[in-house]
Amino acid sequence: MEILVLGGTAQLGHAVAAAAVRRGHRVTCAARGVSGSVPAGAELVPVDRRDGLDPLAGRRFDAVVDVATMSLRWVRDALAALGAQAGHWTFVSSINAYADTMTPGQTAASPVLDPVTDAPDFTSEDRQVDVETYGGVKVASENAVREAVGDRAFVVRPGLITGPGDRMDRFGYWAARLWRGGRVLVPDAPDQPIQHIDVLDLAEWIIGSAEQGRTGTLDAIGPVTTLRALLTGLAEIVAPEGTELVAAPPRALLDAGVSPWSGPKSLPLWLPDTHLGLTAHDPAESLAAGMPVRPLAETAHAALRTERELGLDRERIAGLTPAEESELLATLAHRVW
Ligand SMILES: NC(=O)c1ccc[n+]([C@@H]2O[C@H](COP(=O)([O-])OP(=O)(O)OC[C@H]3O[C@@H](n4cnc5c(N)ncnc54)[C@H](OP(=O)(O)O)[C@@H]3O)[C@@H](O)[C@H]2O)c1
């Protein structure tokens, strides 16, 4: 097949393009080339979506995969330029499209946020995004896709994406931190649900779905586990002997200015009570649709390789600095997991 990836230079788009090349397709990626390079075997057509898609004018693709992070305008422009001739269209939305962040067991049929049609475009250089606006733009983008190419559209809503190329410092924070060993501060929320999908599994699934002409809307998620199972499992894979997971009470962490999930001075993957549903969607539909789920060890080692490439001592956009962690360990540690 002739496949276009709108993106292709960052984590998911790159993995999608690589999966498509591996599966024998001819692959074109359209991006600026600022976030990285495209995989070997794929062609980069330099495009700045702020200026439209003229470099792709007149081209026809059997399948298009759009990973536009947060821009309704980019999504609409792509549909206008390429939708009529495209054989199949995948739009990468997000689990943040859902209105209810608390209830576990939701499915693709659960209610979504109101569409947001007037938000400014997000670019890779932006890091501060209001999650509700992000989710609302995804909903508006999904609707635009269904309106334009609904009979050929596959809308996927990934949960937390992990594995190689992850620059979000969430799963990667834990892989790197546990690899360093010692006393590792964790939030004492052992039973918190957590769910992720390895980018390589997601990419294979997206291309496999395009090959089959799958349409409709599905979550793109793996099985639900607990925070304790995930972090102790990760520790078994990457941490040196003698590593201790030292838990601090969530309330005390919040009082000490530690944020859940992401951002500066945070404990990534830890969720506030208001958001426990986000990482506990029902994976049955994704799995029934053939979502592969690789062993945690492969995701962990790949995340660690990316961490090393990025620099283990770099300034991160999420997590605790060593100094912050030491101070919190000295004051808040209350039990070892
Ligand atoms: N990470 C998660 O846990 C998570 C969870 C749920 C959903 N998602 C969704 O999954 C997708 C992730 O995609 P991703 O990993 O490939 O990366 P991304 O960091 O979201 O970047 C997307 C692509 O957009 C391109 N881009 C940015 N500005 C551009 C411009 N002005 N013109 C043309 N292209 C531009 C980037 O390439 P250049 O910079 O090289 O131009 C990059 O290839 C997004 O849709 C995200 O919303 C992510």
TrEMBL record:
Q: Which domain of life is it from?
A: Bacteria
What InterPro entries would the database entry show? Epimerase_deHydtase, NAD(P)-bd_dom_sf
| Span of domain NAD-dependent epimerase/dehydratase | 3-213
Q: What's the protein here called?
A: NAD-dependent epimerase/dehydratase family protein
Species name: Saccharopolyspora rosea
